[in-house]
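Internal ticket - ligand job 485, adenosine-5'-diphosphate:
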Amino acid sequence: MSDINNFLATVPTGLWIDGTSTTALEGGSFPVYNPATGAVLAEVADAAPKDALRALDSAHAAQAEWAATPPRARSEILHRAWEILIERTEDFALLMTLEMGKALGESRGELNYGAEFLRWFSEEAVRIQGRYTDAPNGTGRILVTKEPVGPCLAITPWNFPLAMGTRKIGPALAAGCTMIVKPSEDTPLTMLLLAQVLADAGLPAGVLSVLPTSRSAALSGELISDQRLRKVTFTGSTRVGSVLIGQSAAHVQRTSMELGGNAPFIVFDDADLDAAVDGAMAAKMRNGGEACTAANRLFVHNSVRAEFTARLTARIAAMKVGPGYETSTDIGPLINAKQRDAVADLVADAVAAGARVETGGAPIDGPGFFFAPTVLTDVPDSARITREEIFGPVAPIYGFDTEEEAIALANNTEYGLASYFYTQNLDRAFRVARALQAGMVGVNRGVISDPAAPFGGVKASGLGSEGGTEGVEEYLSTKYVAFTQ
Ligand code: ADP
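stdout (structure tokens):
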């Protein structure tokens, strides 16, 4: 633990504004907890709305020069930051495990994934293109250019403390936008350390600010009501996302929204059952189930349901629960007591409605916010868990008989983020991939996120894409220049 304390003493805890770590104007700080013990890890400066205006002044002042910085120079800063992140893998992995709880192996995975957004967008920075054509009637020329949208606000959640930031920061900086990041109050330390890495990589002062706060709504409200801010990019709940969309209407700011999910995971009777069980473990238990892409509803063909349930239950029951920084741990705690209690309520509601607990089913006593990895069967339609996002290590398994029924069940949700299915039939693979109402479909795989692919949802799951070639477009506006010659 003394190594951990020595390391924590090196992590910045001030607001990051205008290229320096600073205290909040009104003073004050708030605690960040270790979810494995409930103990305080650090006290972090608590940004007030006035601090938000300081950050916006600085982002606005830096905007023109950053936009005019050669794409190659922007690219090289992002690339250097990627290199530093990789060099500092163990520091970032430990920090994410400490403040978020996930097992160290998963934190290392997030470091690679999160850093890759900086490398990917360093490569995109030099490939932002417009076009030039003749007007069809011969009277002029059409020149189309892309310009940065301007200063952006990014609001990020706690479940991926690094990657949810880098997949917004990477494309914004590549496009030539400045950005203010408001990290989750549960996990602000990773983002503060990232700001230092970007500064070490050569990012000019003012281009990026990081504002931890215990008053998220007041801070974001102050920024969105200022017309100098030109974009809001958010990852979090649909409830907060729709509030932000409403607020951004006043100044017609651009929005990108990565919101809730209720992912179906379908196992057809022609699936490779070993692969499907592996995939279900990944889709359900990765990040302790605290992911918007997490499989929320497992639909298994009735002819293989008993076999699949037995195999998945054995795997889930064998998971070792503990602090993420212990090497034997497969699955860490939930983020906080509120989240643990919300998961416990969903399970209790399902059980009261008649669901059967195959394994787990309850919180684990002791310090920290642990919940036993759980499998539920015979869950009736009336249970809340059939409709609500679980965000925890609970796998409800449902049966079905026909492909049409599986698709109808999968689409019977207001959400449309990730979806997964297992089949060895090629025709069925194309048919089902088309029929699923989701922004992302995993075919015979349980992990789909990739910095080179567009991540995003339909319906109440959001607007826009992050990653891929699409990701940078979210930070660009289109200008048409008309010529007569
Ligand atoms: P989750 O349930 O995953 O915590 P939230 O949508 O509550 O999702 O939180 C995601 C992010 O949004 C966090 O950074 C949080 O601080 C922030 N947030 C929560 N409520 C508001 C709000 N009313 N306005 C702006 N940001 C908010």
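Auto-summary: The chain has two domains: 2-259+461-483, 263-450. DSSP finds 15 helices and 20 strands in the chain.
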